[in-house]
Amino acid sequence: MAPKNLRVSACGTALRRLWWRAACALVASLCSIAVSAPPAAEYQVKAAYLFNFGQFVEWPTQAYDAPDAPFVIGVVGDDPFGKVLDDVVAGESLGGHAFVIRRFRNPKDISACHILFIGRNEAARLDETLQVLKGRSVLTVTDIAGAENRGAMIVLVNDRNRIRMRINVAAAKSSNLAISSKLLRPAEVVGNEGER
């Protein structure tokens, strides 16, 4: 019969192996989830961008209907964010204006909002949506490739698994929006007429 401390040691080694196998199985399952979830991660990042844009863009005072009016982020068409965008802004405010998320089925349904996200699935209606917003101080944000050349203000581009910005400064100015140089610095700027 083996000495008592040798039996404990063998038992400890067996437990460590069992724990190690369980840990490896857990890591493998998490890796498979991560591999299948890039779109969710992409829209988590884009939701954070939308939330933070409020701090780097200046809206005219008449952009709010009342002193206690909410700061509205709108999404037109099919919503690629799901609950993520709501979670990002929950309980947050900007200059005393509580964040609110509104979803619009069609461009004609768009009511008061400060930021409007136009998803890739809305590419066919981009021009219609931008026309509906003409003359309103709404920051238009999209992930439709090339939309900055069609009048969208900020385009979020997925470049080698990194989200990059293209900003059309002229489009923002035409809607009486001032974009901070802190937001312009890391972006590719178009329509800036020599300013940066």
Keywords:
eight-stranded mixed sheet; two-stranded antiparallel sheet; Rossmann fold; about 200 residues; alpha/beta
Please sum up the structure shown:
With 196 residues, this protein is an alpha/beta fold. The protein has 6 helices and 10 strands. The longest helix has 32 residues, at 4-35.
How would you portray this structure in words?
The protein is α/β, with parallel strands linked by helices and 196 residues long. It folds into 2 domains: 1-36; 38-190, Response regulator (Rossmann fold), CATH 3.40.50.2300. The chain is built from 6 helices and 10 strands; from the N terminus they run ααββαβββαβββαβαβ. The protein has helices at 4-35, 38-56, 84-89, 126-133, 169-174, 181-184; strands spanning 57-58, 71-76, 93-94, 97-104, 115-118, 139-142, 154-159, 162-168, 178-179, 188-190. It starts with a helix and ends in a 6-residue tail after the last strand. Residues 6-37 have low confidence and may be disordered.
Secondary structure layout:
Elements: H1 4-35, H2 38-56, E1 57-58, E2 71-76, H3 84-89, E3 93-94, E4 97-104, E5 115-118, H4 126-133, E6 139-142, E7 154-159, E8 162-168, H5 169-174, E9 178-179, H6 181-184, E10 188-190
Parallel strand pairs: 2-4, 2-5, 5-6, 6-7, 8-10
Antiparallel strand pairs: 1-9, 3-4, 7-8
